[in-house]
Design brief:
Layout (H helix, E strand, L loop, with lengths): L2 E5 L9 H11 L8 E10 L36 H10 L14 H10 L7 E6 L5 H11 L7 E7 L18 H16 L2 H4 L8 H4 L7 H9 L7 E5 L2 E2 L3 E2 L2 E4 L1
Parallel strand pairs: 1-4, 2-3, 2-4
Antiparallel strand pairs: 1-8, 5-8, 6-7
Family: Belongs to the DODA-type extradiol aromatic ring-opening dioxygenase family.
Organism: Pendulispora brunnea
Protein name: Dioxygenase
């Protein structure tokens, strides 16, 4: 199974039919139906590594405020994935994983409403330890890589550029210079399979503005690690920007 990184952008993605159609079309290109989905979202950094609820019917996490009421009515009632949780716990034994009753956050469900619109795929979310280095996150992804052979779709969710303080609110999506520059660096780095550079983004042009905090970049590193030997096989099924500072570039490894 390929590995994905999705630029999830603003929470309103869940209600955006045009952007959602791109995600739905991407899901249709998978070689087969995934057995389950494992999501690593920018919106859950918790140590030690923590797994989301394995109980059906766990409410979603609406971890935002000030948006239109219909967004708070969105549901994604995917089946829980207790068997995947057992497998992930075994593979991440050295990380000391723990269970929780937490539901899926918006980094997961806003994209899954389009990638799995009928909510049929058993879904589990995994936290990123906030203290982990980029190299450690790469290793975390590599530990998860064998799940691909069980048809688990590993999905990182964040943004290659993410600066909410620099949103362009004049209605244009054209990227500002620093965002375009960092997005271009990431594209070249991913295309060349240079994982050392990917794990050292502070050396990249525009990093400080592209990521005032690194949380939305870190799932990309986990996804690259999960790709294993396929980290050099990349394509970009979705590209572009919104609000000038949010890259929508999404990556498929493998």
């Amino acid at each position: 199974m390929p590995v994905a990184f999705v630029g999830h952008g603003a929470p309103l993605l869940a209600l955006d039919a045009e952007k959602g159609a791109e995600l739905s079309a991407w899901a249709m290109t998978l070689p087969r139906r995934p057995s389950a989905v494992l999501v690593v979202s920018a919106h859950w950094e918790d140590a030690p590594v923590t797994l989301s609820s394995t109980r059906n019917g766990t409410p979603l996490v609406y971890d935002f405020y000030g948006f239109p009421e219909p967004l708070y009515q969105v549901r994604h009632d995917a089946p829980a994935a207790p068997e995947l949780a057992t497998e992930v716990t075994k593979r991440l034994a050295s990380w000391g994983p723990r269970a929780s009753d937490r539901g899926l956050d918006h980094g997961a469900w806003t994209v899954l409403t389009h990638l799995d619109p009928e909510a049929r795929l058993p879904t589990l979310q995994l936290s990123m330890p906030h203290s982990a280095s980029m190299k450690e996150l790469l290793a975390l992804g590599r530990a998860l890589s064998p799940l691909r052979d069980q048809d688990v779709w590993i999905l990182g969710s964040g943004n290659i550029t993410h600066n909410l303080r620099r949103l362009q609110r004049d209605g244009t999506d054209a990227p500002v210079a620093w965002a375009a520059e960092f997005d271009a660096w990431a594209t070249e780095t991913l295309s060349s399979g240079d994982l050392d550079a990917l794990c050292d983004p502070k050396r990249a042009p525009g990093w400080a503005l592209a990521h005032p905090t690194p949380d939305h970049y870190r799932p990309l590193v986990v996804a690259a690690g999960a790709a294993g030997d396929d980290a050099t096989k990349v394509r970009f099924p979705i590209v572009g920007f919104e609000f000038g500072s949010l890259s929508r570039r999404s990556v498929e490894f493998g």
